[in-house]
Amino acid sequence: MIAKSLQDKTTLHNGVKMPWFGIGVFKVEEGPELVHAVKTAIKYGYRSVDTAAIYENEEGVGQGIREGMREAGISREDLFVTSKVWNTDLGYESAIAAYETSLKKLGLEYLDLYLIHWPVEGKYKDAWRALETLYKEGRVKAIGVSNFQIHHLEDLMKEAEIKPMVNQVEYHPRLTQKELQSFCQEHGIQLEAWSPLMQGQLLDHQVLKEIADKYGKSIAQVILRWDLQNGVVTIPKSTKEHRIIENATVFDFELTDEDMKRINELNQNYRVGPDPDNFDF
């Protein structure tokens, strides 16, 4: 299914519905700008907010959520909130404690999705058992991982009682991760993109510019539309109101198969973030 609106959702393998589109807040510092960004996203129809313990901004995100819900007249159940357990908390007890800390900072009673942030060798299985416990107790709606490659997923699923519902990874036209996406599709794991705009490095690319001009759209809008048509959940980061609005204006056009192919061919397996297999934790 191709998302037709900002409120459209994909159904995870446990039946939980997750918005195809949301706002990310990576490296947005605590303060009025962060609160305003989250409130603005909710105001203009975003229903998914993605943060993490290591971003050190969960309190501001929580404030933005509360104020945004109040002003938009929506309830907590209308939102999908994600956070992640950091590498230093990947033990069983420490992961559960980290979840409690994130909830407290966010001012929420539950999370919709909780992820293991990075596949730290020798540690992520204990953390996964903790996430399974939180899930079985009904304290989180869905659980998943971030930055896991195929061999990490295979290793985890050998012993896991519950397979991940989501894998959030770096994903953009220079890093299409086709084999990983195929593996996730085969196992019912929803792929989600972080850094979908490659931290702005693609915003003057000639091929993308040609396609954008054809549709009367920005390069960012074309990339985000490409994500959605590839069946990838996406969470672009922005703090500027006009960008938050622009990023979400991707449901009034559809890329042709030829345009999708041209964008797919830009892949160079190039990362702007760390390599999950060689990340100095």
From TrEMBL:
CDD domains for the chain: AKR_AKR5G1-3
InterPro entries: AKR (IPR020471), AKR5G (IPR044500), Aldo/ket_reductase_CS (IPR018170), NAD(P)_OxRdtase_dom_sf (IPR036812), NADP_OxRdtase_dom (IPR023210)
PROSITE patterns: ALDOKETO_REDUCTASE_1 (PS00798), ALDOKETO_REDUCTASE_2 (PS00062), ALDOKETO_REDUCTASE_3 (PS00063)
Top-level taxon of the source organism: Bacteria
Pfam short name (any one): Aldo_ket_red
Domain NADP-dependent oxidoreductase: 33-267
Name used for this protein in its record: Oxidoreductase YtbE
UniProt organism field: Paenibacillus woosongensis
Gene: ytbE
